[in-house]
Design a protein that fits this description.
mainly beta; 3-stranded mixed sheet; cell cycle
Length: 124
């Protein structure tokens, strides 16, 4: 359902989903990441092409210390894809003006939908 609206769901970890960003009821935009945080086996995703806003959501949700270099979209990350995520770890990302493709990327056109609560949508 989210992908059909241009919203990219990213699951960090497995087990029970304990938190999410954006929060239920918040406005989301096509191309933005909808991050779901499980309670075990949390692994770093490939951040290539992620926006600053999405990186900030991930850092906030997973209690990472964020250091950024440049502007634009992520072209390099200090914690490699698949590495274990630990609270308090420093994530340094390099951003460049060009968006690099990732398997989780999309455009940034606005959407009229709101973040779903418990997997439901406010659309009829």
């Amino acid at each position: 359902m989210l992908k059909a609206e241009g919203i990219v769901p990213i699951q960090i970890g497995s087990g029970t989903i304990r938190n999410q960003l954006p929060y239920p009821g918040e406005r989301v935009y096509a191309g933005s990441k909808f991050i779901l945080s499980g309670d075990v086996q949390k692994k770093m995703p490939d951040l290539s092409g992620w926006s600053m806003a999405d990186i900030m959501k991930l850092a906030d949700l997973e209690d990472l210390k964020l250091v950024t270099k440049g502007s634009g979209f992520v072209s390099d990350q200090s914690i490699p894809k698949g590495a274990e995520l630990k609270v308090g770890r420093t994530l340094t990302v390099t951003l460049t003006g060009e968006k690099k493709s990732s398997s989780e990327g999309a455009s940034h056109a606005p959407s009229t939908s709101s973040a779903p609560d418990s997997g439901t949508s406010d659309k009829p």
